[in-house]
Specification:
700 residues; mainly alpha; five-stranded mixed sheet; three-stranded antiparallel sheet; flat; disordered N terminus; kinase; EC 2.7.13.3; Nitrate/nitrite_sensing; TCS_sensor_his_kinase; phosphoprotein
């Protein structure tokens, strides 16, 4: 019995040794990268920021500058040093660093073309600024992969400090743009918008980075942000945003902003030194752990080897038999049982839970018996779970089907009431009831989807994407907050149109619920190389990166629906619908702080149509009657299906021949307001009846 404790001790120390050695190797590799690629990339970023500012001045006054030429020479020297450092550190680069590093190399290769555009006068000030910003953005993305830390707390501080550095970059962009604008005394509209965006990003990143720093590292930043110099800068910054013009006192701006930039660079340097000292202490502790773990682990390993020689043969044979039985149970029998249950097959519990047959010592027999008991319990639990899931699925399905029938009847009643009602106020109330009923129908369809069945709505012909999006928005409570951008003239297969409508409606509703009520949810779409992409973007608070990862895993591989996780019911519905048609759904943080949901429809479900065929009524030919009316009520106007106007086709013969028009006869017996209202109500009823009859003919 002495063998098992020694084996456990050996395994434990082996794990500790492996962990500490791994940490030590990571630290050594990180230090090597910092001394080569890290230092040179930082110097290159500083030179690129300086060249950007001087290039904007050149684009404004058009005069060649010796300072610009000298700065470009310094930048070229920094580029050569960076590339040489990358070649030396090739073996130390981790796999996750290679992609952002390749992006930096590709952007640096465009530097000559950027300069040529500036010198040749083919580049505007805003275009030149964006070109340098794009290059520096690639540098900062590479920095994010170049900051290893031995401890979680140090890593968090490094990440927060990196955020403060990103905020500093946006401050430099503001300063460069204003300095150039001071030469001609104006900011054009794109430049004013860019300045506002830079200021907002700087404020957000400063607040985010400040929240992540501990008290010691945060204090210098807080003191600077409370200083009169920074408050003066913030006041001038706000004035530029309001007026859309550079500050009238350019010297004051340059003086205050220069002081803020210098002080931030000093504080960033001190914070980096402090974190370097902390990391050095952690490295020393890791080295001590390696030494202790190596010595003690060596003793434990030697003891276990000596004892294992005596008992190894006998235990090896017994453990091999137990291992084979356990592997068969875990890799074959139980997975096969779960697959059969998921397909709805009947399972014989006694046959599936047959005991494990092994021979050997009492300990091995006891373990085999325990495995058998666990197996029997697992089989019974799996069978019970499958039966319960099937029962709940049937309950969901029956309730949803009944609810669907009632809702269809309710929609028919509302339809009849709308036909008979002439009062606009009553029509508005009926429309609200119709809208609520449509949302209830979508919730009933969600229950059907969660039960594993299909809702049953489908069309024979392709449905335009714009109509699918409009129909989805019509099923959302706060549809008035949704803004739809222009979309490419494509259509989706009719068999998937209803499910895609439901999917987009769930995402749009989620965006309206989890964003402030005074903000707008933006929906846009476009044809891509291998399908169609629809984006839903809100202005909410967004999620943490780990939450995005968790939700995207559910959307990629939807698990069985868990009744205890009903808060994410819409997420499961979206995942099931996406899986049914091989649609990809991705959630990610929006640049404005909210969440962007990207829906990618595969090419096999998308057809291109350059111009939709003209409709007889309302320009939505592919939707059924009720969906068409809802879409028209939500989004006025359409891009297709409207008749084309022919110039002067309705002119009288006298006007066409150039003769003056006949005098208009004197009007008599003007209609009263009540008569006009009745006339338009009759016209509305006739138009609505004609549309519904056309819909019924089209669906038949």
């Amino acid at each position: 019995m002495l063998l098992l404790p020694l084996l456990s001790l050996s395994a434990l120390w082996g794990f500790v040794l492996n962990l500490t050695v791994s940490d030590g190797w990571s630290l050594l590799r990180g230090d090597s990268l910092h001394q080569t690629v890290g230092v040179t990339s930082t110097e290159l970023g500083v030179e690129l920021q300086a060249e950007r500012e001087r290039s904007l001045l050149k684009l404004t006054d058009g005069e060649p500058s010796a300072e610009l030429g000298e700065q470009r020479a310094r930048t070229d020297t920094a580029v050569d040093a960076f590339r040489e450092a990358v070649m030396r550190a090739e073996d130390d680069l981790a796999d996750d660093m290679r992609a952002p590093l390749n992006t930096v190399q590709a952007e640096l290769s465009r530097l000559h073309a950027i300069r040529s555009g500036i010198d040749g006068g083919f580049s505007t000030r805003m275009l030149g600024l964006n070109e340098y910003n794009r290059l520096l953005d690639a540098m900062f993305r590479f920095y994010d992969h170049l900051a290893p830390a031995p401890e979680l707390t140090i890593y968090q501080q490094v990440t927060a400090l990196q955020t403060m550095s990103n905020a500093h970059e946006f401050l430099l962009r503001e300063h460069a743009l204003v300095r150039a604008a001071q030469l001609d005394g104006r900011l054009i509209e794109p430049e004013a918008a860019a300045f506002t965006e830079y200021a907002s990003s700087r404020k957000f990143l400063h607040a985010r980075g400040l929240a992540g720093l501990d008290v010691e590292l945060r204090q210098p930043y807080e003191e600077l942000f409370k200083s009169q110099t920074f408050l003066t800068f913030a006041t001038m910054e706000a004035r530029v945003i309001r007026s859309g013009a550079p500050p009238p006192d350019g010297g004051s701006w340059n003086d205050n902003t220069g002081k803020v930039i210098t002080e931030l660079e000093r504080i960033n340097g001190l914070a980096a030194e402090e974190l370097g000292g902390r990391a050095a202490g952690a490295v020393t502790a890791t080295r001590v752990q390696i030494g202790v773990a190596g010595g003690v682990g060596l003793v434990a390993v030697l003891a276990s080897i000596i004892i294992s020689v005596r008992f190894g043969r006998r235990l090896g044979a017994e453990l091999a038999g137990l291992r084979s039985a356990a592997v068969e149970l875990s890799e074959q029998r139980l997975p096969d049982l779960v697959r059969r249950l998921s397909r709805g097959e009947e399972v014989d519990v006694a046959q599936a839970a047959r005991p494990i047959q092994v021979s050997g010592s009492a300990e091995i027999s006891d373990v085999a018996g325990a495995f058998g008991a666990v197996q029997a319990t697992a089989v019974r639990a799996a069978v019970g779970q499958a039966a319960l899931r099937r029962g709940l699925g049937q309950v969901f399905l029956n309730l949803a089907r009944r609810k669907q029938g009632l809702l269809h009847r309710q929609l028919s009643v509302l339809d009849g009431m709308q036909r008979r009602t002439h009062d606009p106020d009553q029509l508005e109330e009926l429309f609200r009831l119709d809208h609520l009923t449509t949302r209830m129908r979508r919730h009933a369809e969600s229950l059907i989807i969660l039960s594993g069945s299909a809702p049953g709505r489908a069309w024979r012909k392709p449905v335009p994407v714009i109509d699918v999006v409009r129909a989805a928005i019509a099923e959302v409570e706060d549809y008035t907050r949704v803004d739809v951008a222009g979309m490419h003239g494509s259509a989706v297969d009719g068999s998937a149109a209803a499910d895609l409508t439901h999917l987009i409606a769930e995402l749009v509703e989620n965006a309206t619920i989890y964003s402030p009520p005074d903000t707008t949810v933006h929906v846009r779409g476009d044809r891509v190389s291998n399908g169609y992409s629809v984006e839903v973007e809100d202005r909410g608070l967004g999620l943490q990166p780990e939450e995005y990862d968790a939700y995207n895993r559910v959307l990629t591989e939807p698990p069985e629906f868990d009744l205890a996780d009903s808060d994410r019911l819409g997420l499961f519905v979206v995942a099931k619908l996406a899986q049914r048609h091989a649609i990809k759904v991705l959630l990610r943080r929006s640049p404005f702080g909210g969440t962007t949901a990207i829906v990618f429809v595969p090419d096999r479900l998308v057809t291109d149509q350059q111009e939709l065929p003209p409709a007889k009524n309302d320009g939505l030919p592919s939707l059924p009657g009720r969906t068409r009316k809802k879409a028209l009520a939500v989004v006025s106007g359409t891009h297709a299906g409207l008749p084309r106007r022919v110039r002067q086709a309705t002119l009288s013969s006298r006007l066409k021949d150039g003769q003056p028009p006949e005098p208009e006869p004197e009007r008599k017996n003007e209609r009263s307001p009540d008569e006009v209202r009745d006339l338009f109500s009759a016209f509305q009823r006739g138009t609505q009846r004609a549309r519904e009859e056309a819909d019924e003919e089209g669906e038949a």
